[in-house]
Give the backbone structure.
Amino acid sequence: MFKRLIVLLMMLVLSSCGYNTLQSSGENIKATWAEVLNQYQRRADLVPNLVNVVKGYAAHEKEVLVEVTEARAKVGALQATPELVSDEQAFQKFIAAQGQMTSAISRLLAVAENYPQLKADSLFRDLQAQLEGTENRITVARNRYIAAVKEYNVTVRSFPSNLTAMMFGYRTKPSFSVENERAISVSPKVDFGAPAAVGSH
């Protein structure tokens, strides 16, 4: 009977000191981060087809094509696991790689402006629409992750839940900094409505 009372008392203390909040917000971070990874993977999966279509019309734009391919390979080489959110250094490396991917895709799409036939290609237009949708989903997923991390980190730092966090080894999670958020939040321009000047190439 005495042991039961101790267990009950401990449950009440932990509950009032933020333990349950830490658990639920930690799970929310995992779920929102998984969606961020899912959308980044969706974007990476579009790249090979995008490169191939552009190559069909602009094979001599080798530098840009190589840049996109290498950026995708760099992203693919990183271990994008749920545990990434507990490793500040690995997290920043992953975000930097995604920023390079965004920049490379933007350059590739800018090159396409000079090729009217490429812009008119139905496969290219389908890929650009998919890419635009994916970039929008990345932004939404990233914002949800930022909100989840903010809620969790406030709990970890606030009294008395910070005592519970220290007791059980809970630490703050990394989020997107102002710098890397700015670098990857500018979606690649995929609006090819205005025709380019014929004869540019």
Remarks:
- Residues 102 and 180 are 11 Å apart (CA to CA).
- The radius of gyration is 23 Å.
- The longest helix spans residues 19-57.
- Residues 11-15, 182-201 have pLDDT under 50 and may be disordered.
